[in-house]
Design brief:
The complex is a heterodimer of chains A (118) and B (114). Chain A contains no helices and 11 strands. Chain A is mainly beta and 118 residues long. The radius of gyration of chain A is 14 Å and the shape is globular. Chain B is globular. Chain B starts with a strand and ends with a strand. Classes of the chains: A mainly beta (118), B mainly beta (114).
């Protein structure tokens, strides 16, 4: 089945540090990838849609200068949390949608990254 | 407005009992519908999907869901719960004109008791 690898799985760092999270589709190409944030005991909140070769589309209220997204290839998207602060601590999850197979292709999710800012 | 509603944030069943997790959508055009499962500190795993081919959809781990247009529902069921089914379940929809964005329900936490 379709596999999405997300790395790292857990990050603990000091306030002010920038953190990069990678999302890779291992056995399929993904023109579009998605970045979500999940607070404890809550559903997923879409942060941005990552488009290969073009700028990401951010949801309302998400700071694009704070959460930098790069989608340089059909199998890799990265999310960089710049100058992270304790309020950025959360569970970040990426997903990828196969480029082929039609509009009803499901998104496949990575295992998430637990970010803790001290 | 297009939305997904999961009735019941917590469901508790005994091992071997029927599992029923409810999902309703709101839109004039039926969306594509998905059920995902999330185990602690992990991402989401696709259980099954409805893409208008068949109204009764069978997924992994013995789960199935039935699409009912008249009720705008896509409830998830499993005849006999297993302890390993304890997890968070999310219903999600891909609406027409939704720019490929999945709209998630709030989730239902399933507890299974021995």
């Amino acid at each position: 089945g379709a596999v999405v690898s997300q790395h790292p799985s857990r990050v603990i760092c000091k306030s002010g540090t920038s953190v990069k999270i990678e999302c890779r589709s291992l056995d399929f190409q993904a023109t579009t990838m998605f970045w979500y944030r999940q607070f404890p005991k809550q559903s997923l909140m879409l942060m941005a849609t990552s488009n290969e070769g073009s700028k990401a589309t951010y949801e309302q209220g998400v700071e694009k200068d704070k959460f930098l997204i790069n989608h340089a290839s059909l199998t890799l998207s990265t999310l960089t949390v710049t100058s992270a602060h304790p309020e950025d601590s959360s569970f970040y999850i990426c997903s990828a949608r196969p480029s082929t197979g039609g509009d009803n292709q499901p998104q496949h999710f990575g295992d998430g990254t637990r970010l803790s800012i001290l | 407005a297009q939305s997904v509603t999961q009735l019941g944030s917590h469901v508790s069943v005994s091992e071997g009992a029927l599992v029923l997790l409810r999902c309703n959508y709101s839109s004039s055009v039926p969306p594509y519908l998905f059920w995902y499962v999330q185990y602690p500190n992990q991402g989401l795993q696709l259980l099954l999907k409805y893409t208008s081919a068949a109204t009764l959809v069978k997924g992994i781990n013995g789960f199935e869901a039935e699409f009912k247009k008249s009720e705008t529902s896509f409830h998830l069921t499993k005849p006999s719960a297993h302890m390993s089914d304890a997890a968070e379940y999310f219903c999600a929809a891909l609406f027409s004109g939704g720019y490929n964005k999945l709209i998630f329900g709030a989730g239902t936490r399933l507890a299974v008791h021995p």
